[in-house]
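User: Show me a protein chain along with its predicted structure.
Assistant: Here is one chain, sequence first, then structure tokens.
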Amino acid sequence: MARIKLTTGRIQDFQLEEGKQQSYLYDTESRGLAVRATRGSKSFIFERRVNGKTMRVTLGAVNDITIEDARSKADALIAQVAEKVDPRIEKAQADAAAALQAEKDRIELAKLKAEQAEQNQLTELQKTTLGDVWPVYIAARKHRWSDLSLRDHLRAVQLAGEPHRRTKGETVAAPLVSLLDCRLIDLNADKIKAWLDTETVTRPSSAARCFRLLRGCLNWCGEDGSPYIGLAPVDAHSAKRVREAVPSNGTKSDCLQKEMLPAWFAAVKMQSNVVVSAYLQTLLLTGARTSRMYALPFTKLLR
């Protein structure tokens, strides 16, 4: 067993003995400290007999730690052995504790990342406007609607400046257009009431109809399974001040009464244009909508 004071030069000169798997060079300054040479590497080790068995603990490669550091580590291990503490068990426990802490840190980091991702997703979702939701709502619900109801939903958000269907002019912005850029989280009772107050001044019937459409959309947003659940305030459309702001339909005064019919038919039959006369009488007798009557071929009237 070679024993010598370890120096940098002596460690560099120390080589693996021919025909052996490993060779040792022991230090005289720190008992138990040695350099172990193997094929291609040299390391500082601590060697001691514990309970009748040889114990070796690797301290580090000779290129990674200094001789002084290796001696300090060896002295600390000697003190542990003197206290009947097995450094290997101590190291295993320390490694296990470090691994456990690393796993806790990994789980905590993953949890923080998940919470951050959820917060980022919520932040993006909170940017959702009524204009983003409306086409999604129509696509999800149109299979339950009639053609007329689908048309009403499309017209409720019709932009200004489009060619008018029955005139040569352009369309004006539909009632809900002014709310399309409003975020769902901002679409509270005060916002809806202010919108109703504005629209009711010029087009009360359209405002009432579009409010009902908006109410249906907000109800859908709050249903289980909706991607927008929890965004719109729960009392956005049901608050008392909102309900009171919705225009009432009132009693119609521009309809024909039974006693008016003889005079009306007499006046219509006096029309010089027989097509117009026939058109008006057919509307009254069948109750057909004007748009459907426009598209009705003359041949079908003869059946």
